[in-house]
C-alpha cells in the first residue's frame, strides 16, 4: 500500500508540475503577445501619421496645381468693335457714289482686343466677315498684333466693303428710317501665340470669335474698350475712313 501511495503521490506531483509548467508557458506567451503589441502600437501610429501627412500634402499639392491651371490656362482674346470711328452718313454716301466706278472700298478700323491671360499674346491673324441683313458685305483683317496680359489694346484692322450695291439701303436704315436701325453682324476667327516674358512661344492656338451684333444707331458695348472715354458721339463716330484716291 505504501508503494502505491508513493506512486500516486508522484503522479499527482508530476501532474501539478505539468500544470505549473503549462501555466508558466501560457503566461510567457501572454507576455510575448503583449510585448509584440507594445512594439506594434508605435509602428501603427507612425504609419497612420505618415499616411495622414501624405494625404494632406497631396491635397495641398493638388489644390496648388488646380489653382495654377485655373490662373494660367490659355484663353482666347476678346475682340470688340466699339472704339472705331466713322461719320456714317458721309461714308455711306461716299460708298454709294463709289459704287459706280469701284468694286470694293477699304478703310482702317480700330479694334479693341482684351487679353485675359497672365502672359502676353501675339495675334497672328484676325479675320472677320461683316453681314448686313444676312448677306455678307465685307471683311475685317488684323495681323501681327501684340496684346499684353490683362490689358485692353487697340489694333488697326483693315475693313474691305465689297457689296457696294447695298450701301444705299444701309444709308436709308441709318439716317432716314424711323422704324429701323443700321445693324451689322461680325463673325470671325483668331489665331494667336501665348508668349513667355522673353517672347518665346508657349503655345499656339486658334478660336472662333463670338458673333458681334453692332447697332450703329445705338451706343456700343464698351466693356472691353480702351478708348471708351474718347467716344463722344457714338452715333457719328465709329470708323476711321481711309483717304482713297479716285480710280
Explain this structure to me?
The chain crosses the membrane at residues 54-73. This is Late embryogenesis abundant protein LEA-2 subgroup domain-containing protein. Keywords: Membrane, Transmembrane, Transmembrane helix. With 247 residues, this protein is an alpha+beta fold. It has 2 domains: 25-73; 78-215, Immunoglobulin-like (Sandwich), CATH 2.60.40. Helix content is 37%, strand content 31%. The chain has helices at residues 2-72, 88-98, 167-176, and strands at residues 78-80, 105-114, 121-132, 135-147, 152-161, 183-195, 201-215. Strands 1-2-5-4-3-6-7 form a 7-stranded antiparallel β-sheet, with no helix packed on it. β4 (135-147) and β5 (152-161) form a beta hairpin. α2 (88-98) packs antiparallel against α3 (167-176). The longest helix has 71 residues, at 2-72. The chain is elongated and about 130 Å long.
Amino acid at each position: 500500500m505504501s508503494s502505491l501511495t508513493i506512486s500516486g503521490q508522484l503522479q499527482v506531483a508530476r501532474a501539478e508540475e505539468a500544470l505549473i509548467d503549462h501555466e508558466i508557458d501560457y503566461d510567457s506567451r501572454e507576455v510575448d503577445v503583449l510585448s509584440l503589441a507594445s512594439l506594434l502600437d508605435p509602428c501603427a501610429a507612425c504609419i497612420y501619421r505618415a499616411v495622414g501627412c501624405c494625404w494632406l500634402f497631396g491635397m495641398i499639392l493638388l489644390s496648388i496645381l488646380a489653382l495654377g491651371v485655373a490662373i494660367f490656362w490659355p484663353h482666347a482674346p476678346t475682340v470688340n468693335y466699339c472704339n472705331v470711328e466713322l461719320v456714317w452718313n458721309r461714308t455711306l454716301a461716299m460708298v454709294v457714289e463709289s459704287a459706280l466706278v469701284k468694286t470694293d472700298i477699304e478703310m482702317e478700323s480700330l479694334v479693341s482686343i482684351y487679353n485675359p491671360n497672365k502672359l502676353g499674346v501675339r495675334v497672328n491673324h484676325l479675320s472677320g466677315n461683316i453681314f448686313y441683313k444676312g448677306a455678307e458685305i465685307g471683311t475685317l483683317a488684323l495681323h501681327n498684333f501684340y496684346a499684353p496680359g490683362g490689358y485692353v489694346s487697340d489694333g488697326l484692322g483693315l475693313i474691305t466693303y465689297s457689296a457696294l450695291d447695298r450701301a444705299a439701303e444701309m444709308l436709308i436704315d441709318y439716317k432716314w428710317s424711323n422704324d429701323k436701325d443700321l445693324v451689322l453682324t461680325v463673325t470671325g476667327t483668331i489665331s494667336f501665340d501665348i508668349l513667355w516674358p522673353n517672347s518665346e512661344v508657349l503655345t499656339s492656338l486658334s478660336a472662333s470669335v463670338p458673333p458681334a451684333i453692332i447697332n450703329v444707331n445705338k451706343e456700343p458695348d464698351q466693356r472691353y474698350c480702351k478708348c471708351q472715354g474718347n467716344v463722344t458721339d457714338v452715333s457719328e463716330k465709329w470708323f476711321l475712313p481711309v483717304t482713297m484716291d479716285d480710280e
